[in-house]
Amino acid sequence: MATGRTHRPATRSRGIPEATVARLPLYLRALTALSERSVPTVSSEELAAAAGVNSAKLRKDFSYLGSYGTRGVGYDVEYLVYQISRELGLTQDWPVVIVGIGNLGAALANYGGFASRGFRVAALIDADPAMAGKPVAGIPVQHTDDLEKIIEDNGVSIGVIATPAGAAQQVCDRLVGAGVTSILNFAPTVLSVPDGVDVRKVDLSIELQILAFHEQRKAGEEPALETAAGDGAQPAAASREAAAAAAPAASADQGPDGDVPAVMPA
Amino acid sequence: MATGRTHRPATRSRGIPEATVARLPLYLRALTALSERSVPTVSSEELAAAAGVNSAKLRKDFSYLGSYGTRGVGYDVEYLVYQISRELGLTQDWPVVIVGIGNLGAALANYGGFASRGFRVAALIDADPAMAGKPVAGIPVQHTDDLEKIIEDNGVSIGVIATPAGAAQQVCDRLVGAGVTSILNFAPTVLSVPDGVDVRKVDLSIELQILAFHEQRKAGEEPALETAAGDGAQPAAASREAAAAAAPAASADQGPDGDVPAVMPA
DNA sequence: CAGTGTGAAAAATTTCACAGCT
DNA sequence: AGCTGTGAAATTTTTCACACTG
């Protein structure tokens, strides 16, 4: 990679599709694993299998980053790890604060996956005075009263909300007011934030509900297999759409329009 | 298996778009809140604001379920709650097992959001003999040795994996072997499952990485902000739909649920 | 050859805008 | 009037398939 000093051609990274951005961490994880095994290069086919996507998609994704592969050979693992890390902004340190140190907040504080990716838990904040000073994952919990000061002193721009739903918006407002511009929300609430602030949410029960939807379908129909995934052959490759794809008309579903004896609470 | 890749748009039958399915839980949550406040009806505009999406999308989503609204009036809250619940399969009880009772597993066991949506934690399973019998969230932890029996005895079809990455695939195989057909994976690994089995993943560090990507971009074009057009990546969710909301822009940068993989490192 | 990079086609999803009920 | 339901257009994402290169 003699390109070490080549400055990125301004034309390059403009507008990477959101769908692609969402997959970069996945590629990075797979590449990191290869790197630890000292694998020098990978083909799009192999890497795609390891990341659980198909190779065409992976190549297209990488094409948005630039031409980092070698035709006939594949990609240099180390180089790609670096490029993706840089693209994701992981070559710098991101101090984050976790607000709401209950079961989930504590689990997040103990979660080792953050530190290994450039995220540093700068502080833990909770509204319960009784928790103040108590260490969780080796970090002393601080009271909500000092939230603004903590954010400012540590130059935090990313906040994690793990409070009960009722407190989420208020906490969010304070975080934003103090300068946070990216929020990861675990509370089951839709947060209102001003333009320029990013919010991503993780809702555990929503994921289960989506699974239940498909599960219900499976029960309704019998065995509907049907391989649909394009690439088979490789080990990994969980195909989520496998079931979603096949949905035989069959069963006269409930009439689309109201006549069905609507069972419903009143 | 390649081949036979004839596109079958026909199979659409009762097919609700995956993107829509992913939003149904969101609507349900908003509707439930309205229901608790005894609000009888809502317009697509109001409900959309509460769910963090725009009204056109909401109406289109509902159109896949049927015509449950009343022109000129809106939707009957109770009726819609019922219809969506039924569509999601939440009118029935879903016993689930959580495997891996570490910090995260324990947090999940204690998470109240499951029970309230029809999910019942039927059992907690861990490989550590020392944990056996110890109650977590009021439920005694059982040893992995009995995994198959537990699944069968309880008729479990949905499993949650919260083990370290290294154990995930093995646990997954056993769950599937015992009859589980839907898996929510919190381990930072791509799981291989046979056709017919659904897998959804949640990865905390991936969400943070996506935020970091956008955060980095913001820093780059620091100027006094302003809707600097030209930039491809769009930061926070636009507040275009906040029109009906209120002063603060309502934005819910909901993750592309369709497939944002998320996993967490151990 | 093997395998990347990519126009072009296909599919999925979102947004528009307005006809049509109530 | 007010608001839903929905074709049609616009946009995004995925998949194809093959030219091109090391």
From TrEMBL, chains A, B:
SUPFAM superfamilies listed in its UniProt record: NAD(P)-binding Rossmann-fold domains, Winged helix' DNA-binding domain
Disordered: annotated segments: 221-266
GO molecular function: DNA binding; DNA-binding transcription factor activity
InterPro entries: CoA-bd, NAD(P)-bd_dom_sf, Rex_actinobacterial-type, Rex_DNA-bd_C_dom, Tscrpt_rep_Rex, WH-like_DNA-bd_sf, WH_DNA-bd_sf
Residues binding NAD(+), per UniProt: G100, I101, G102, N103, L104, G105
Localization per Swiss-Prot or TrEMBL: Cytoplasm
Superkingdom to which the source organism belongs: Bacteria
This protein's record includes keyword Repressor: yes
Swiss-Prot/TrEMBL keywords: Cytoplasm, DNA-binding, NAD, Repressor, Transcription, Transcription regulation
Keyword Transit peptide assigned: no
DNA-binding region: 26-65
One CC-aspect GO term: cytoplasm
Compositionally biased region (Low complexity): 228-252
Positions of the CoA-binding domain: 89-190
Biological process terms in GO annotation: negative regulation of DNA-templated transcription; response to redox state
Function: Modulates transcription in response to changes in cellular NADH/NAD(+) redox state.
Assembly behavior: Homodimer.
UniProt record similarity statement: Belongs to the transcriptional regulatory Rex family.
Record protein name field: Redox-sensing transcriptional repressor Rex
Organism, as annotated: Streptomyces monashensis
